[in-house]
Specification:
Elements: H1 14-23, E1 24-29, E2 34-36, E3 44-50, E4 53-58, E5 64-70, E6 75-76, H2 78-83, E7 90-93, E8 97-103, H3 105-110, H4 113-139, H5 142-157, E9 159-161, E10 164-168, H6 173-180, H7 184-196, E11 200-203, E12 206-209, H8 212-219
Length: about 220
């Protein structure tokens, strides 16, 4: 499967990808499997080759907050592998996944300076994205945040059809709520609002966006 644009693997040359493959070993996980656990200390990274995962954290009250959805080409666990700190998120397979597990990642970076620079750029981009989402939480209502997340999924995973853009949702409604910083009830109401306006159609684990420009306007 081709890497998603902007993910780590898409930034590397064929030779760098092969070197990274040679430094690791392939592994597979079933849907629902916890790949990494928040608070654990481990020294390996995962280069995701197939499938999608969610990166999440839990509040003191036990509420799950979904921080990101990552797809093919993503690098996971790099911060803990570099600085030795505990994992900051839990990574869970949203569907069957496969990837390359690389141990002693810092040594690999020491011998591949260009890759180290690209990693810095990747981390910088993720920090900017996190800042943008924090601004959204303060500036947008729940419907606006749900529309924004649906647009993000459409851009990354959408499939054009005669009726619009179809998105196979990797998230349950509870997980979508955790990704938008809202309650499940608020997300259900937001989806109903978007449906009533004719912007989307929802089904089991899927959304069809009938009016992507209209959805973009509602997101803003």
């Amino acid at each position: 499967m081709d890497p998603e644009p902007g993910e780590f693997l898409s930034m590397l040359t064929d030779e760098e990808v092969e070197a990274l493959r040679s430094a690791g070993r392939p592994r597979r996980w079933d849907r629902g499997t916890t790949i990494m656990t928040e608070g654990d200390t481990s020294d390996w990274v995962l280069l995701l080759m197939e499938g999608r995962v969610k990166c999440s954290s839990h509040t003191s009250s036990g509420t799950e907050v979904v921080l990101a959805v990552r797809g093919p080409g993503a690098l996971l666990g790099e911060l803990s592998a570099i600085d030795g700190s505990p994992r900051s998120t839990t990574v869970t397979a949203l569907e069957p996944i496969s990837g390359i597990v690389v141990r002693d990642f810092p040594t690999f970076l020491e011998s591949h300076g260009r890759v180290a620079v690209l990693l810095m750029q990747l981390v910088s981009g993720r920090l900017r994205d996190a800042d943008r989402k924090r601004i959204e939480y303060g500036a947008f209502d729940t419907t606006g945040r749900v529309a924004t997340r649906l647009l993000e999924l459409a851009e990354r995973y959408g499939e054009k059809t005669n009726s619009g853009v179809r998105v196979a949702l990797p998230l349950s409604q509870d997980e979508l709520a955790g990704w938008t910083g809202a309650s499940r009830e608020a997300v259900s109401k937001a989806l109903r609002t978007l449906r009533d306006r004719g912007l989307i159609e929802t089904g089991r684990r899927r959304v069809v966006i009938h009016d992507i420009d209209g959805l973009r306007k509602r997101a803003r």
